[in-house]
Specification:
By secondary structure, the protein is α+β, with helices and mostly antiparallel strands. Helices cover 44% and strands 34% of the residues.
Length: 134
């Protein structure tokens, strides 16, 4: 690895030290439905995001709420002495990517068949602290 590449890799690694993430793989919801809920909490602080997800009637919000709580517990493992309110955590990034697809056949008129695609998705949620250290 070259000097310049190593230097940029160290900068990326240092920036990821303050971020905490959680992943949800193969969630049996279509990515389009999950993105509708993910767009509601992107960029919000953690307490506000938890409130939005708790009272949203969509099924995807329950799964994202559980994922956000998992990311919070990952943050607490590294920062046992800190308080969540003082850290000013916010949802820095939330990505919804398409996962594997189950393909099924549904009978159609005149002996034909229609393909049904049961979609799934992968969600990555990244928390970051807004606190300025002196």
């Amino acid at each position: 690895m070259g000097k310049r590449k190593r230097k940029s890799a160290e900068v990326i690694k240092d920036s990821k030290k303050s971020a905490f993430f959680a992943k949800l793989n193969n969630c049996p919801t279509s990515p389009r439905k999950m993105r509708l809920v993910a767009d509601l909490v992107r960029g919000k602080d953690v307490n506000n995001a938890l409130g939005i997800l708790k009272f949203n009637p969509k099924e995807a919000s329950k799964k994202l709420e559980k994922l956000l709580l998992s990311a919070l517990s990952n943050w607490q493992l590294k920062n046992e002495s800190s308080n969540i309110e003082e850290a000013k955590l916010f949802v820095k990034e939330i990505r919804v990517d398409s996962g594997s697809m189950l393909k099924r056949l549904r009978p159609a008129p005149q002996g034909r068949a229609h393909r049904i695609r049961k979609r799934s998705n992968h969600v990555t949620l990244v928390l970051e602290s807004n606190k300025i250290e002196k």
